[in-house]
Structure formats: structure tokens, C-alpha cells
Specification:
The complex is a heterodimer of chains A (92) and B (208). Chain A has 92 residues and is an alpha+beta fold. Chain A contains four helices and three strands; from the N terminus they run αβααββα. Classes of the chains: A alpha+beta (92), B mainly alpha (208).
Chain lengths: 92, 208
């Protein structure tokens, strides 16, 4: 039986990846709202996903406000698909 | 949501829940951009028609340029507000690219028409009308298919019929008389943009 990717087998990181799998891009506020997480925790988890090259995090400005946009990378997409496949094996 | 380890069943629940929550957002949005282009085109068409009737001066046709000028400025401003939702879906991207391509092709056709008019001394502006009544409805139908919005699909289809009829008239040498062609042109934009725009806004306000 395949091992579940530990980077994805965590509640918030999996939630973020699940959202990003379904959209082209999502900003920090959207992710925070959908995952019902705190800004600090989300920020930490985004950094971890970004460090693994699962997502890209782009910081920009909309007017005077900062806007952080996240996108899933092909590597992240592959990791998510593998994770779901592995999950299927476990659940049977 | 806190960061913690979980069981396989919980993983599946999270994935399902996030897909559901992201799906909620795939609403039609508002039909304001559609309404802006629709009303703008109808208003400019009435203006050109009226001026031509009053003055019999072909220079009035330059007023057609008000459509890309006003629409080209208003669209990015209106689209900027849509960005506030915080997410761009795949359908958003497809629709954006579709209309950008349509817009750029109109720009290119304008360059060709100007070149033909001032360099080759041939009037080919009719190509713009035909193109407008074929490509815009086709794009509108694709937009409607992507969004699963029937009013856009039907509106586009009706306008496309008007476009194909216009194409046959022009290639068959039948002159496009303003008295019947302008109402037809205006009708195409009413069914293709104004009616779907209002329907989408009503649906959006009902969902709010």
C-alpha cells in the first residue's frame, strides 16, 4: 500500500490544495474564507506548500492593498492526484 | 480550520467539502459588461442612423468608433471590480481569452479597413458589419455554453442567423438599406447582449 504524502496529509494544506485544484488562481482572502483558517496558520502552510513547489505564491498590489495570489503548479497537481490515488487504495 | 493530522476518511471529507465550497462561487456573476456593450452598440447605431438620415453625410460613420473607444475603456474598469471575488476559475480564463481574441481581431480588421480605404482606395467597411454579426454571436454562444446560460446561447444563435443573412445579402449584391438593416443590427444586439445581460442580473440578484 502506498504511503500518503505527509505534506498533503494535513487538514489545512489538503484543503488549500483541494481549492487550488479547482480554480486557476485564488487569493489569500478567498483561501482563508474557504478553509476557515486563521491568517497566521494559512500563511505558514502556504509557505510549506510553496517550498515544496506545489504552489506558487505571487504578491502584488491592488490599489494600495497587497494581494497574494496562489496557483497550483504541475508538480502540485501531480502530488494531489497521487495523494487521491493513494487514498483510494486505503479506503478500498 | 487548524493544521492537524487526520484519518483517510477525514481527508476525503475535506476534499469533497472544498470542492463543494469552490463550486458555490461558479455563479454567473453579473451581466453588467454585457449590458454595457449591448446598450452602447444600440445607442451608437441609433446615433449613426439618425445622423445619416439627417445629414446624408457618410462622415457620420466615424461615430461607429465610439463603440470600441467607450467599450474598450469601460470593460477593463468593470472587469477590475469582478476581480474582487478573490478567485479566477478556468471558465473565467476561457471567457476572458475568448473576448480578448475577439477584441484583437476587431482591432486588426479595423487596421485592414483603414489600409484599404486610405491606401488602396477601396471601401470595405461592410466587412466590419458582417464580422461583427458573425464573430460576436459565435463568441457569445461559446460564452453561454461555458456558463451554461441558455439566454446567451439563444441570443447568440438568433444574432448569428441575422449575421449569416447579412453575409448572403452582401455576397449576393443586395444593398443593405438602412431602413431595414439598422433595425436588424440593433435587434441582433438586443437579443445577444441586452436580454441575456438583464436575465443574468435577475438571476444574480435572486441568488444573492
Amino acid at each position: 500500500m502506498r504511503e500518503l504524502n505527509p505534506l498533503l496529509h494535513s487538514q489545512l494544506r489538503l484543503a488549500v490544495m483541494s481549492v487550488l485544484m479547482n480554480v486557476e488562481e485564488a487569493d489569500f482572502v478567498f483561501l482563508k474564507e474557504k478553509t476557515e483558517s486563521t491568517a497566521g496558520n494559512l500563511s505558514v502552510q502556504l509557505d510549506k506548500l510553496s517550498a515544496a513547489d506545489y504552489i506558487t505564491v505571487e504578491k502584488g498590489f491592488v490599489g494600495k492593498k497587497t494581494r497574494t495570489v496562489c496557483r497550483i503548479t504541475p508538480r502540485g497537481r501531480k502530488a494531489f492526484e497521487d495523494y487521491v490515488d493513494a487514498l483510494r487504495d486505503y479506503i478500498g | 480550520m487548524i493544521e492537524k493530522q487526520m484519518t483517510e476518511k477525514e481527508s476525503l471529507e475535506i476534499i469533497t467539502k472544498m470542492i463543494e465550497r469552490t463550486k458555490e462561487r461558479y455563479s454567473l456573476g453579473d451581466g453588467n459588461i454585457l449590458l454595457m456593450w449591448g446598450y452602447l452598440t444600440v445607442a451608437v447605431s441609433l446615433l449613426v442612423w439618425g445622423l445619416l438620415w439627417l445629414t446624408h453625410n457618410n462622415a457620420c460613420n466615424w461615430c461607429w468608433f465610439l463603440i470600441p473607444l467607450v467599450g474598450g475603456i469601460a470593460t477593463p474598469l468593470m472587469a477590475k471590480n469582478k476581480h474582487k471575488s478573490g478567485v479566477v476559475s478556468y471558465s473565467d480564463r476561457i471567457i476572458s481569452r475568448l473576448w480578448t481574441t475577439v477584441g484583437l481581431s476587431f482591432l486588426l480588421l479595423t487596421v485592414f479597413c483603414l489600409f484599404f480605404t486610405y491606401v488602396l482606395r477601396v471601401d470595405c467597411w461592410i466587412a466590419m458589419l458582417i464580422y461583427c454579426l458573425i464573430v460576436t454571436p459565435a463568441a457569445e454562444m461559446v460564452n453561454g455554453i461555458v456558463l451554461k446560460e441558455m439566454s446567451m446561447q439563444w441570443g447568440g444563435a438568433i444574432a448569428l442567423v441575422i449575421g449569416l443573412f447579412t453575409l448572403c445579402c452582401v455576397t449576393g449584391g443586395i444593398p443593405l438599406g438602412a431602413s431595414w438593416f439598422m433595425p436588424l443590427f440593433i435587434l441582433a444586439f438586443i437579443v445577444m447582449m441586452i436580454i441575456p445581460g438583464h436575465i443574468i442580473n435577475i438571476k444574480a440578484s435572486n441568488n444573492a
